[in-house]
Amino acid sequence: MLISGFTHPLCGVDHILAMIAVGLWSGLAGTRAVWIWPSVFVATMLAGFAAATLGLQIPLVEPAIAASIIVLGLLVALAVNAPLWLGAAIVALFAFFHGRAHGAESAVDHAIAYASGFAFATAGLHAIGITLAFRAERPKGRIALRALGALAALTGVTLITA
């Protein structure tokens, strides 16, 4: 189940885009956001997973996931410089829904192994985004990162309208 949990976020474009966008945005923000926002995402995603395994019904999970791609993509595309607490709140909100989706797709008897797998994969996707943000040369690299954010947002729009 660890492998199944690890591969789950890697099999959906929605999860990949949202999680890399968190890494990009935190990398663009710099300072403490680099580790706080991804950490908050993973922790809150695990809370959403726990809510799902406890059977809590959460409405609008799929639209919230699509909205996460749009919003996080726009935050990267516009290079929004949010206060640390606001960025943490935004990623936490979306992370809960991503975790809920993971929890709805797991076997309860192997929940810890599955959750560990997707938590590691998520952290890895965040790290990819952070690395891309750190390696971007100014100003062309920053423009490319912002274009990635815009592409993610457009993909989120297509997921909602499909």
Description of the molecule:
By secondary structure, the protein is mainly alpha-helical. It has one domain (2-161). The chain is built from seven helices and no strands. The chain has helices at 2-7, 13-29, 33-53, 61-77, 84-104, 111-135, 140-161. Helix 2 packs antiparallel against helix 3. It is globular, with a radius of gyration of 15 Å. The termini are far apart. The model has no long low-confidence stretch (mean pLDDT 90).
Low-confidence stretches: none
Oligomer: single chain
Secondary-structure element order, as H and E? HHHHHHH
Give the % helix: over 70%
Instruction: Name the average pLDDT.
Output: 90
Cα radius of gyration in angstroms: 15 Å
Main sheet specs: none
> What is the number of independent domains?
1
End-to-end gap: 31 Å
Shape estimate: globular
The number of distinct β-strands equals: 0
Note the total helix count: 7
Overall structural class, as computed from helix and strand content, comes to mainly alpha
What proportion strand?
Answer: under 5%
List the helices and strands and how they pair.
Elements: H1 2-7, H2 13-29, H3 33-53, H4 61-77, H5 84-104, H6 111-135, H7 140-161
Helix pairs in contact: 2-3, 2-4, 2-6, 2-7, 3-5, 3-6, 4-5, 4-7
